[in-house]
From TrEMBL:
Gene3D superfamilies noted in UniProt: Intergrase catalytic core
PROSITE patterns associated with the record: CB, TYR_RECOMBINASE
Keywords of this entry: DNA integration, DNA recombination, DNA-binding
Pfam families according to UniProt: DUF6538 (PF20172), Phage_integrase (PF00589)
Biological process terms in GO annotation: DNA integration; DNA recombination
Signal peptide start and end residues: none
Core-binding (CB) domain residues: 134-212
GO molecular function, one term: DNA binding
Similarity remark: Belongs to the 'phage' integrase family.
Protein's name in the database: Tyrosine recombinase XerC
Length: 423
């Protein structure tokens, strides 16, 4: 069974063991249990994440872990106190009354004049602890744990949310007018482009949706009509359609230009004869390579999980790369960036090469993939064969939903129509 999930009868439950040291704060329970209200394991795996994140947060509160932030520590203190009182059977209204009385005393100070009080900080902390106010910065990590995006994208979202929650401490601070001023005045004065501001608001909108679903936030989203309407722009497909494909002379020009960089030369050759994306080739592991084919199991989309026959022209190159690899990858020696991407550095080397050879922004590494597709089309290969080789979604429902794909021999016959040799 998946971690933190139990099946009881036909329904899945979220489950988390409570450390013995903090069980008194949970009425001496040994574990936390909550129905996920589904019989589907895939749905359960999605629904369990925010619940476990919240439970772990409660356990950390009960442990009294210091955050180094006085306000957050005050919130944790108020929550621990409330948990202790609940375990003793104290009713909720009495807990609220007692905590607010202490907070009011702190705000007034010893002379009851506010002059030497805490400015209402403890009262705000108690409001958060009692669920009366929502501290926006508190749930960012829990939200990011529920997202299925790349590490790089996750860090970008985190930066956007930190900026948002630094401006708006509590959810009720983020009114539509205040958010509009922030997006159109503060961020513009920080020289952020309109597209960047739209991206930031999109991240904030996703976070707000999460807070509505998982943290019982009932305030209306403050992001409607905050920025001016987006002008109509070309879609990603339209942009890619405008890119130029490399032709046979271009391919040989590229190879001649990188004779002092054998790894880049191998990458270009593989791109030309497989039609793969640069990320797919740089992430290809030896365990996924056979003598006559290789499997792409970590592609950009589900349709991209595919089998590629090894073209006759690159059989010797593939064998050499396998024999000389010093790590687990076909293209050995590439470095990871901080987001776990092996294609970043060599992609920049390709960019410098093509620029030095006189190619502009309409020629990129993807242009080899475009040239690969062009050759298959000119060879009269069926669309479904081309789609299988390139990892594109099948538009036909019968093929897309029910077919397991073409046999290897058919794919091999098709791919060997690709020919980058000079005539």
């Amino acid at each position: 069974m998946v971690k933190h999930i139990e099946k009881r009868r036909r329904v899945y439950y979220a489950m988390l063991n409570i450390p013995a040291a903090v069980r008194p704060a949970f009425n001496n329970k040994r574990k936390l249990l909550k129905s996920l209200e589904t019989e589907s394991i895939s749905q359960a795996q999605v629904r369990v994440l925010p619940i476990i994140a919240e439970w772990k947060n409660q356990i950390e509160i009960a442990k009294g872990t210091s955050t180094g932030d006085k306000f957050l520590d005050d919130v944790a203190l108020a929550r621990r106190d409330a948990q202790r009182l609940r375990s003793q059977g104290v009713p909720e209204w009495a807990i609220e009354e007692a905590q607010e009385q202490v907070a009011t005393s702190e705000a007034l100070g010893p002379d009851n004049t506010h002059d030497h009080g805490d400015g209402g900080q403890l009262f705000d902390a108690v409001s958060v602890a009692l669920g009366k106010r929502l501290l926006l910065s508190e749930h960012i990590d829990s939200y990011l744990n529920t997202t299925s995006v790349t590490v790089k994208t996750k860090e970008m979202i985190r930066r956007d949310l930190v900026r948002f929650t630094s401006k708006f401490r509590f959810a009720d601070d983020a009114t539509q007018r205040a958010v509009r001023d922030w997006a159109n005045i503060d961020l513009e004065e920080a020289n952020l482009a309109l597209a960047t501001r739209r991206r930031m608001l999109s991240a904030c909108r996703g976070y707000w949706d999460y807070l509505e679903r998982q943290q019982k936030l009932e305030l209306p989203p403050p992001f409607h009509k905050v920025l001016p309407p987006k002008p109509k722009k070309r879609t990603k497909a339209e942009i890619e359609a405008k890119r130029k494909g490399f032709r046979v002379p271009d391919y040989h020009k590229l190879l001649a230009g990188c004779q002092d960089d054998p790894t880049l030369s191998d990458l270009i050759t593989l791109g030309a004869y497989t039609g793969c994306r640069i990320e797919e080739l740089c992430g290809l592991k030896l365990t996924d390579v056979r003598t006559d084919r290789f499997e792409l199991v970590d592609a950009k989309t589900e349709a991209g999980w595919r089998t590629i026959p090894i073209h006759d022209h690159i059989k010797q190159s593939m064998a050499r790369l396998i024999d000389t690899s010093k790590d687990d990858y076909l293209l050995s020696g590439l470095t990871f960036n901080k987001f776990g991407d092996r294609s970043n550095a060599i992609g920049k080397r390709f960019g410098r090469l093509k620029k030095r050879l006189g190619y502009g922004p309409d020629h990129v590494f993807h242009s080899l993939r475009k040239g690969f597709a062009t050759q298959l089309e000119n060879a009269g290969q069926p669309l479904n064969v081309v789609a299988r080789l390139m990892g594109h979604t099948q538009d036909n429902q019968s093929l897309g939903n029910y077919s397991d794909g073409l046999v290897l021999e058919e794919l091999k016959r098709a791919i060997n129509h690709v020919d980058w040799s000079l005539r």
